[in-house]
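Chain A, query sequence.
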Amino acid sequence: MTEAPAPTDPHAIDTLQRLEALLGQPSDASLSKEVPYIHPAYRAMIEAAPFAVLATTGPGGLDASPRGDPPGFVQLLDDKTLLLPERRGNNRADSLRNIVADPRVALLFLIPGVGETLRVNGRARISVAPDLLARFVVNGQPPKCVIVVDVETVFFQCARAIQRSRLWSTVPPGTPRPVPTPGAILAAITLGQFDGATYDRDLPARQQATLY
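Chain A, predicted structure.
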């Protein structure tokens, strides 16, 4: 006797076709902002960020863990390579164990007072090279190791999630923005082909209209 097929959920979005029908096509801006290297505008965001989330995957599953130090704690070796110090912790080393097994990583950078976040995807390796460790000495203590990320894609994420969460609501009003605006980034990456001023002018209203 054959088993009856399991009932399907008519409301499930389980194919790309259904997903695209639900969400629509991505905007030009959402595609133009992605580049395969650290553009100077994105360098500014990395240098201003005191906090990042590192996502990894391995045999034991997925992991996302926080990383933080004074702004600029993630350094650029060049426009295709990031250096992330691994400070002392509880020795679980979930991220490092995953990187040993699977080099794919993703980073999410957050900057206090700035709605946009920065996303970096790439492949990582772990190094104890003395010259790399020496770059991150704090109070006479080098990191345990350095995560070297070969960058594959970089792009900023729009501010809606930060706006919804009011994450930076305690940042004093009028605090100067320390990094380029989204429009300025798009204009710089496209060498002026994108109208950054208009994008920035219309962005607050567009975000408020589409928060939910």
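The longest helix spans residues 196-209. The helical segments are 16-23, 28-32, 40-48, 94-101, 130-134, 160-165, 182-189, 196-209.
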